[in-house]
Amino acid sequence: MEIKPKIGFDKIKFGMFRNEIIEILGRPDRILTDEYDENEQKLEWNKLKIRLTFQLDENDRLTYLVSKNPNLNYAGQRLIGIETEIAKNKILKELATQWEVENYDFFQTHFHEPNWLTLHSEFGEIDEIEMGVPFKNKNEYDWPK
């Protein structure tokens, strides 16, 4: 599964409608409504290890991806299980050089806002990736063309 920051992954693009994505990926294993935002629903595919977020107030369009899929890659290079510094400074170097890093008790997050990309790391390796559609401004998504 190749991630394409600002666009999506594989054949999936941010802004696609739920029914289009279900046609491609099949029925999800679980559907969750966000307890803090009733306009968000998350669909999970267990075998693919992905969770996609849809905005109901945006006509049920895809806005966010969370994944632990070991086949996630960028430009053909795997990301999950790779040392964090190698992922940031070699694999994703052309994409981002400045990362906002937050340290928690047992893990770190590395966020690059222009690409709305977050790398989660634990024990010095990437173990999860989050990616969303960037914003044009405070209230409007910058949907891919």
Keywords, please?
145 residues; mainly beta; eight-stranded antiparallel beta sheet; Pathogenesis-related Protein p14a; single chain; three-stranded antiparallel beta sheet
Written description of the protein model:
- With 145 residues, the chain is mostly beta strands.
- It has a single domain, classed as CAP (Pathogenesis-related Protein p14a), CATH 3.40.33.10.
- Helices cover 11% and strands 42% of the residues.
- The chain has two helices and 15 strands.
- It has helices at residues 18-25, 84-91, and strands at 3-4, 8-9, 12-13, 30-33, 40-45, 50-55, 61-67, 73-74, 77-78, 100-103, 108-112, 117-122, 125-132, 135-137, 140-141.
- A hairpin with a 6-residue loop joins strand 4 (30-33) and strand 5 (40-45).
- The chain is globular and about 40 Å long.
- The model has no long low-confidence stretch (mean pLDDT 94).
Compile the SSE list and pairings.
Layout: E1 3-4, E2 8-9, E3 12-13, H1 18-25, E4 30-33, E5 40-45, E6 50-55, E7 61-67, E8 73-74, E9 77-78, H2 84-91, E10 100-103, E11 108-112, E12 117-122, E13 125-132, E14 135-137, E15 140-141
Antiparallel strand pairs: 1-2, 2-3, 4-5, 5-6, 6-7, 7-13, 8-9, 10-11, 11-12, 12-13, 14-15
At the first level of CATH, what is the class? Alpha Beta
How is the CATH topology named? Pathogenesis-related Protein p14a
Query: What's the name of the CATH homologous superfamily?
Result: CAP
What topology, given as strand order, has the largest sheet? 4-5-6-7-13-12-11-10
In the predicted model, the low-confidence regions spanning at least 5 consecutive residues are: none
Q: Number of helix segments?
A: 2
Structural class: mainly beta
Describe the global form. globular
The helicity comes to: 10-25%
Number of domains: 1
CA-CA gap between termini? 20 Å
